[in-house]
Amino acid sequence: MNADDLLLFAQVIELSSFSKAAEKNNLTNSVVSKRITRLEKELGVALLYRTTRKLTLTEAGATLLEHAKTVKQAVLDGQEALSGYGDAISGNIRMSVPTISGRLVLADTIAEFCNLYPGINIEMNLNNRFVDLVEEGYDLVIRTGHLEDSSLIARHITDSQWVVCASPDYIQSKGRPFIPSDLVKHNCLKYTYQTSGATEWEFKGKDGDYIITVAGNFATDDASALRRATLGGRGIAYMPSVLVYDDIVAGDLVDIFPDLVAKKLGIYAVYPYTKQVPKKIQLLIEHIRDKYHSILHVF
Known about the structure:
Number of strands: 13
Order of helices and strands: HHHEEHEHEHEEHEEEEHEHEEH
Distance between the termini: 60 Å
CATH architecture of the largest domain: 3-Layer(aba) Sandwich
Number of domains: 2
Domain HTH lysR-type: 1-58
Pfam families: HTH_1 (PF00126), LysR_substrate (PF03466)
Keywords: DNA-binding, Transcription, Transcription regulation
Protein name: LysR family transcriptional regulator
Organism: Vibrio algarum
Structural class: alpha/beta
Helix content: 40-55%
Largest sheet: 9 strands, mixed
CATH topology of the largest domain: D-Maltodextrin-Binding Protein, domain 2
């Protein structure tokens, strides 16, 4: 069986027309017809019922079509895999990233990637919900937490250590907690975007991890608002280090318990299942991974 004839057969069905398939492949109608007839003879079965108005698959034709689609996808996967070995990487990437990570970390990272590969166009949507990649047409999603949909592939990029931090002004005014239990005496800003743990802060102990229950007068589900309140000296916050690394390095925030915070969350690159990950997606994931690692090595 000729693979080209198999692909042509799939195109005829996809376009519901011999003439459209002929036009797409720069062939004559008679050549397309002869090649489909040749395929039927080689297989010893009829694949199509032909009338002047439409084409209808036989039972054998419907079975073969599924295999033809597999061959077609294998060809596309092969082309995609080899695209990175030519002179340039090109194409479009549609991705979704968490709002705060997009603003503080990934905006510049993605723009830098586009400069490295001018043939790539990236649409980056900021969204905290876990989007439906296939239904909504995303090529890549960056998320923290656990992956539940087994039809997707999640590549672990890194782990983001959480920190307890406050501004120098707050510490000067209210004093610095020396041990985690001191937090019960302080105004602790609550990050309610978490599924749990807004007031239960987790720490490392000699006998294992333990929880300190805190209280405070400000709560928000937006990490950007939490960061601004912390920078403004309103209280002590418990949040991912990746979101405040610039502030800590600059001295605008103080990492109060650098070796005691137990909580960390995995950061993942998530994409639809495919036998061959497109080269452009592989390169983008590596670029994002390198960026996160350059940030998180300071903690």
